[in-house]
Design brief:
Elements: E1 2-3, H1 11-30, H2 33-38, H3 40-58, E2 61-62, E3 67-69, H4 74-99, H5 108-133, H6 138-168, H7 174-180, H8 185-206, H9 216-220
Antiparallel strand pairs: 1-3, 2-3
């Protein structure tokens, strides 16, 4: 979900801009640049995934004149490339959305927070928790970490968008936000879970070397 018109203004726009810059700075700081520069396959995968997500985000649905829906793909990006590069790919996709005029440039920082920083952070912590705390079973990590985790990242993104709308707009009170936007959350969660889960399950089984956050030997080798 992202804002498609400029209803948010004032202090909270600057707060979101600063938070987005901090998140992007941390991503640049912790990214595995040596791997990106040395591994040609990783370069191609990252570029291809970024282009795919950028094009996918262009296929958005405007549920109101203010807010648009689209697949986030945060869990897939995070498991494939880890959170720093996942955040960068999401930001690049959002810049593409802004460049084509489908998102306002004035709210780039706000959209980065709701469509990139929040869902990528949620993806990172959910998948990491499932990978470390749950049994070493492929179906457990797939359904809990990928399917349900993807739904929770979409939920986190939607809730953060509604929070920003509530705090940053004088035209929307809590009752209106709940009535116009909260009802759409159950609609977007299952598709996000299914698409990310299907992609990650295929990659984990057939192309495990493409998935940086998945240890194939740990889940499939005989012990």
């Amino acid at each position: 979900m992202n804002f498609s018109s400029t209803e948010i203004e004032g202090l909270w726009v600057w707060v979101a801009n600063v938070a987005a810059l901090i998140g992007l700075f941390q991503a640049v700081r912790y990214a595995q640049w040596k791997k990106l520069l040395a591994d040609t396959l990783f370069q191609h995968l990252f570029l291809g995934a970024t282009v795919f997500v950028t094009l996918l985000w262009q296929l958005k649905a405007d549920i109101t004149p203010l807010v648009s829906l689209h697949f986030l793909m945060s869990m897939t990006l995070t498991v494939m490339f880890r959170w720093p590069f996942a955040l960068m790919a999401s930001v690049l996709a959002l810049i593409g959305l802004t460049w084509t005029g489908k998102a306002p440039v004035e709210l780039l920082g706000v959209n980065i927070m709701t469509s990139a920083v929040v869902p990528v952070a949620a993806s990172h912590f959910i998948y990491r928790w499932a990978d470390k705390r749950l049994p070493d079973n492929f179906f457990v990590i797939l359904f809990v970490g990928c399917f349900f985790g993807s739904a929770l990242t979409a939920l986190a993104s939607g809730l953060s968008l509604m929070a920003v709308l509530w705090l940053g707009s004088t035209s929307y009170d809590f009752a209106r936000i709940s009535g116009e936007y909260f009802l759409f959350l159950p609609v977007i969660l299952p598709p996000e879970a299914v698409v990310n889960g299907m992609l990650l399950s295929s990659l984990m089984v057939f192309k495990p070397d493409w998935v940086q956050g998945f240890d194939y030997k740990r889940y499939f080798d005989d012990k």
